[in-house]
């Protein structure tokens, strides 16, 4: 009964999902609210994007910002891209181009940084044909919304666009027809302010405020947020915080615990083989973070999902192959009567493959940490924090390996005829195969 309980606990460990890394969203979502007054035009242009994409774009525009923090990084992105977005939002009346001026922007940082740029154009004719076309972020597959509202008695004829952008549900591009997609990025209408041209006047705009702007939401939490505390905390304090985040990160679903438990509980080996597997998985995981961050920095690629899927498929194939190979050996009876040295040699090669494959998919929060740290001129601090984060993850994986080893040791001691050892081997091999296949089909 106790052996069955141990096996049940092992299976519960193996049932934990294997992959739970949040992949940054490469798309840029936009909401465009157009307000047409007599004589002038106002546009609220909202942009939402991932912090990783923001850091890469800003570095390409102006280079690194040594000594800055993430809040300065976000503000600088708004100042740099506001005029570019205004230029890319094409406005014309009766074929004559209309220039947009940037009045400012608001910033909110929740799951992603979200900017609301405020544009305006003055001296519009009292009536005419208004065309607006958004040409920004043309390569992004992000969602877009567009609404137009007349104010002050302005009449609008043409595209029956919603008057409030918040009334428009978010819909991905692949769900839209060509006409629906066009209406999310452009408009073509006739307008009439209802007043004679000689009496058109542009209401005076308020002068720029000398007072500080309203407080903005602080940058979001997570591993990159430790960079914001660099000025007011010791390196040791930040290192300990990163260590704790590594522990918290590792105990969440995925992150190699099922892999380590299945590999250790289902094989014969030395006592410290499980610790070796846990450390090797962590080392590979950390190396993957550095390699991916360097590749993204060098190429400025935003194909995060494709990169993650490619690494997951390589890891999944390797893990599934090792699991199926182990399963075949157990079912055929190999390893049960072979020499210990031969079994140990084969097992360690399998452990090496599992360790390399198990850490191949990076933690994207750590990738963001390294790229943002480099953009802020604090790469050394980023590497120090990454080392602490990795150590926290390693502690959890070592604990899982030790627990799985204890379970196998208990079963081995109580099992006189080797039946349960063989069953554990089969269960562990099956679990590895399932883990690998789940990565392949994800």
What does this structure look like?
With 442 residues, this protein is α+β, with helices and mostly antiparallel strands. It is 50% helix and 16% strand. It is built from 12 helices and 10 strands. It has helices spanning 2-14, 51-62, 70-88, 178-183, 235-251, 257-265, 273-299, 304-332, 340-358, 364-375, 379-414, 419-441, and strands at residues 29-37, 40-48, 89-93, 96-98, 101-109, 113-122, 127-134, 144-150, 155-158, 186-192. It has a 5-stranded mixed beta sheet, with helices on one face. Helix 1 (2-14) runs antiparallel to helix 11, helix 1 (2-14) packs parallel to helix 12 and helix 6 (257-265) runs antiparallel to helix 12. The two termini are 36 Å apart.
Summarize the helices and strands and which ones pair or pack.
Layout: H1 2-14, E1 29-37, E2 40-48, H2 51-62, H3 70-88, E3 89-93, E4 96-98, E5 101-109, E6 113-122, E7 127-134, E8 144-150, E9 155-158, H4 178-183, E10 186-192, H5 235-251, H6 257-265, H7 273-299, H8 304-332, H9 340-358, H10 364-375, H11 379-414, H12 419-441
Parallel strand pairs: 1-8
Antiparallel strand pairs: 1-2, 2-6, 3-4, 3-7, 5-6, 7-10, 9-10
Major sheet summary line: 5 strands, mixed
Helical amount among residues, as a percent range? 40-55%
Beta-strand residue fraction: 15-25%
Indicate how many domains the architecture comprises.
2
Strand order, biggest sheet? 5-6-2-1-8
Q: Residue-averaged pLDDT, rounded?
A: 80
Separation, N- and C-terminal Cα atoms: 36 Å
Question: Helical region count?
Answer: 12
Total strand segments: 10
Order of helices and strands: HEEHHEEEEEEEHEHHHHHHHH
Rg computed from alpha carbons, rounded to a whole number of angstroms: 29 Å
Q: Based on helices, strands and strand pairing, what is the structural class?
A: alpha+beta
Shape: elongated
Unreliably modeled segments: 7-19, 197-218, 335-346
